[in-house]
Every structure is written in C-alpha cells, then in structure tokens.
Amino acid sequence: MTLSRRARSTLIAYLFLLPALTLLAVFTFYPVIYGTVLSLFSYDIINPPRYVGLEQFHKLLRDRYFWIALTNSAKYVLVVPVIQLCSILLAVLVNRKLRGIQAFRAAYYIPVVTSWPVVGIMWTWMYDQAGIVNWVLRGLGALDRPLSWLSHPTLTLYAVMFVTLWKGLGWYMVIYLAGLQSIPTEYEEAAGIDGASRARIFWHITVPLLRPYVLLASLISTMAAVKVFEEIYVMTRGGPFFSTYTMFMYIFDEAFQELNMGYAAALAVVLAAVILVFSVLNFRVFRRGGLEYY
Amino acid sequence: MRATGAGRGRLFVLYALLAALAVFTTFPFFWTLLISLKTSGPIFAIPPDLSLRGLSAANYAGVWNTLPLPRYVLNSLYISVVGVGLTLVICSLAAYPLARMQFPGKNIVFYAIIATLMLPEHIGLIVNFVTMIKLRLVDTYTSVFLPSLASIFGIFLLRQAYLSVPQELEDAARIDGASDFVIWRRVMLPLITPALATLAIFQFVAFWNSFLWPIIILKTPDKYPLAAGLLYLRGLFAHNTRYIAAGTVIATLPIVVAFLFTQRYFMRGITAGAIR
C-alpha cells in the first residue's frame, strides 16, 4: 500500500495523539454530553434510564436542600476577594532578593502540596473547643469564651473558608509572583521618584498591571469556590444543620449515596450554569488591564 | 540593603513578618507532629502542651502494626507510580505532533484540548462512575488513575518544551533517515527531560493526595490510597487521636520532603501551566 507523504504524516500525527484523544473522549468530552442528557432521565444504575423530560428541574425548584446548597455555594465566593488580596500582598512581600526568601516561599507553599484529608484532620483539631485557634484568639483578647468552630450554625462556613484561604494562599502567591516578575520595574521606580507613597504605588501601578493575573487567578478561585467540596467533606460533611451543605456535597450525596444519578446530573447541570455566570461576571470586572491599561 | 540603622530596623520588621506568616502556614503540621510524638497527657488543653518532653515513636509503631497503614502506603505507591508512568507516555506522545508536525485538524484538536479546561469536571464524576461500571472497572486500581492520565496540564507543558527544541536537530536526524517515532524517542524525549520531571512531580503529588475519586470508585477500603485510607481510619478511630496524628505525619512527610527537594520544578510548573 502506498500513501502520499502528506497522508502518511497525518496518519503518524494521529497515531501519536490516539491514546490521549481516546481517554479525553471517554472521560472528559463524553461525560459532558451524557451528563446533560442524563439530567432528563431518572436513573438509579440498577434499572435502565427512564426519560422524564424537565421533571427533575421542576422538582429541583421545589427542593429545599437545593436552595440551601445553592445559597451556601454562592456565599462561598466571598472567599475569593480575600484570597486574592492576601496572596497579592504576600507575593509583593516575597518578591525581593533577600537571604532565605526561598525558604519562606517554600513554607507558604507547603499547605498546597498537602492532601485534603490531612488538612481536614489537622484543622479539625485546630478548631477544637480546647484547640489552638481558641487559645490564640483568647490570648489576643478577641474571644471571651471558646467557640466550637466546626459545629456553630453561622460561623462554621467561614471557619471552613479560612482553611480554604490557608491552603490556597501559596498557590496564588506563585501565580502573582510570576506576574510581578513580568512587570518592568521602571513604572514603580518612576512613581517612587515622583514621590508616590508605597500604598499608592501598590494600588495605582502594581495592581492594575497585575490585572491579567488577577483575572486568571480569580477565575480559577471563583470556579473552585462555587464547586467547593473537599474542605467541606473532610471537616463538616455539610453540617451542622446543613449550614455548610454546598452544591457539590448535594451532588455527591445524590449520586453516590442515594444513587439518584439522573437527579445528580440535573444538579450538576445547574451548577455548571452557575459557574458559567460567575465566570462571565469575573471577565466583566477584570477585563481591562495589564500593560495596555496605560 | 544598606546597613544603616533605619535600614536594619526595616529589615528586622520584614523578617519578623515573614517568620510570623511561616508560623501561620506551618504551625498545624508542627502541632500534629507533636501530638503524634507523645503518648500521654491531654491533647486538647488551654494552654496547649507545646513542650518537647516525653517524645516517643510508640504511636508510629502502633499505627503501622495495628492499622492497615502499610497496605495504604503500597496502594498509594502503586497508583502513583503506574499513574505517573502512563501519564508521561501518553502526554509526551500527544504533545509531540501538536508542537512539531503539520497535519489537517491540528488546530481543532488543539482547541478541543484547551476547551476541556472550561468543561465542568463535576459532571465527569457522575458519568465516569457509570462508565466504570459499564467497563467493569469499579473497585480496581486501574479505575483510579485511568481518567486522569491524559493530563491537559501535561500536554501543554510538554508541547511548550518540544517547541523549544531547535529545528536543526530534527532536520539532521531526518537526513540520517530517522523515522518520526525514532526522532521522538531518540532526539526529542532526551531534550525535554526537565519538563518531564516537572510533570512527573506534579502528577505524583496529585495521585498521592487524591481521595475524592478513589472513595467513589473503590468499594473495598483495603484498596484505598493513603489519603483516602487516612480519612476512613479517622472515621473508625476518631478517639485515638495520637494514632491518627502519626498516620497523618506518615502521609504528609514524603510529599513535603519531595516538595522541598524539587521546589524549583514546582514553581516553574505552576507558572508554566497556569500562565498562558
């Protein structure tokens, strides 16, 4: 069999791509299509899927737990600006040539490479009634009696957010560090010569120039916040009284505890739509920026 | 920095701040280590017992001998090593034509791969579970690593590395009559070793730390990787805090040590993967 050179090289290229494309097709593309279709079916794995149309979406609107979960997932987005601001400040702090700075950067990064179960176990102890968090806060005079942080009806969600911040800080720091190192130093130097204060330089020069990085990081961070799962699962499982029950927790329970795969798929489709809305908002807020800002 | 009085004062404040932040990010680890190294006294007390008296390795011996921790470590090692090996093969193959060959459909393939970054992966969890049932792979180690082998991050990272290989090297090999496969294997792969190392480290950490997909797809707790197993043990032995602390240290130490030795690759990997 003789093939033209062009046909041959095309064939070879696709042979190289074959294993990856097969895996992506089966485990990445197909799930999105089938998952969307599945949201129109009632499916419990044992019996074959049964078409129910939009029934599950109607049910969802009347489902109390859906609204609780949706509210908590939306609330979780509050953690995004806090993480971004803290990690930008941290990146500015470590973006200098200083003896031992690598060791400090490493120390801030260690929570990132730690698994969620380990983080969950450690922070459950930190948050104990007689744990470190209460000890420190009482020492600082911020609390007059110890709190049970992980079983408090209103505070627990924020306590979990704090762990998200603790674990994510180092990762975003590295992103912003790369951003800071891509900014030519002349801008900041010029402003300094003109007598601008450090705070003004930070807000009016550094942050605007970092905008593309802020967009990227807050996009990633928002998507992660809306579908928050791991930190909840390892610390509260949604409790107390569903006060930390999020969309992904609900999807997880419906799919893998109750085996309501169809209903879980409907919830997942809604979650995907919510993520999309938040991502678009993100783009609108941070679109302008970078060097073309000036 | 000038060694003037004011400069020195500023430097001191800077280091104090850096140190305070380092305590904030690492304190839970030291506290867990301390809990795991003691055998008596109250664990939770105000003020906490932060002294270094009476340290012993008894909890480590206990958790290692009485709980299935060695089993979990072996599971994790198997899943991570096989998973990383296959990831390297699949990604280094896929990235090559995307970087160095011209063929119809190249852009479509490339953008399709980019598009996956925008796809909601939580839907994947549900459908992949159904797929694994159909493939009769539920409760196997293969099911744990199979969905994450075609790493998008990996394909991008390696594509970037291939792009930086000078064209002359490829031309020279082609004149010598080498086939595409031989060029890939003998010329390209050796030149992208740093990128391969970066990918290997990232995937290793990801597999070592994974717990969500494993607890979904594995039905026998004995097959759990370490992170998932630890969570399972905490559920069963919540009262034995010191054993769980020892298990936590065993699960964390290899990753932290590996990270400290390969820090450079890490920082490079994140920025290469995320900034594009």
Characterization of the model:
The complex is a heterodimer of chains A (294) and B (276). Chain A contains 13 helices and 2 strands. Chain A is mostly helical. Chain A has 2 domains: 5-58, no CATH class; 64-293, Orthogonal Bundle (MetI-like fold). In chain A, helix 1 (5-38) crosses helix 13 and helix 5 runs antiparallel to helix 8. The longest helix of chain A has 34 residues, at 5-38. Chain B has helices spanning 5-36, 58-66, 69-100, 106-115, 121-134, 141-145, 152-163, 167-175, 180-191, 193-209, 212-217, 226-236, 241-274. Chain B is mostly helical and 276 residues long. Chain B is 74% helix and 0% strand. Chains A and B meet through helix 1, helix 4, helix 5, helix 6 and helix 7 of A and helix 1, helix 3, helix 4, helix 5 and helix 9 of B.
Shape of chain A from CA axes? globular
Number of helices of chain B: 13
Task: From the 3D structure, determine the CATH topology of chain B.
Answer: MetI-like fold
Question: How do the SSEs of chain B run, as a string of H and E?
Answer: HHHHHHHHHHHHH
Mean of residue pLDDT values of chain B: 89
Fill in the keyword field for this structure.
heterodimer, A: 294 residues, mainly alpha, MetI-like fold, 2 domains, two-stranded antiparallel sheet, 13 helices, 2 strands, disordered C terminus, B: 276 residues, 0% strand
Strand and helix layout:
The complex is a heterodimer of chains A (294) and B (276).
Chain A: H1 5-38, E1 41-42, E2 50-51, H2 55-61, H3 64-76, H4 79-94, H5 101-109, H6 116-126, H7 132-139, H8 156-182, H9 186-193, H10 198-226, H11 230-235, H12 247-257, H13 261-286
Antiparallel strand pairs in A: 1-2
Helix pairs in contact in A: 1-13, 3-12, 4-8, 4-10, 5-8, 8-10, 9-10, 10-13, 12-13
Chain B: H1 5-36, H2 58-66, H3 69-100, H4 106-115, H5 121-134, H6 141-145, H7 152-163, H8 167-175, H9 180-191, H10 193-209, H11 212-217, H12 226-236, H13 241-274
Helix pairs in contact in B: 1-13, 2-13, 3-7, 3-10, 3-12, 7-13, 8-9, 10-13, 12-13
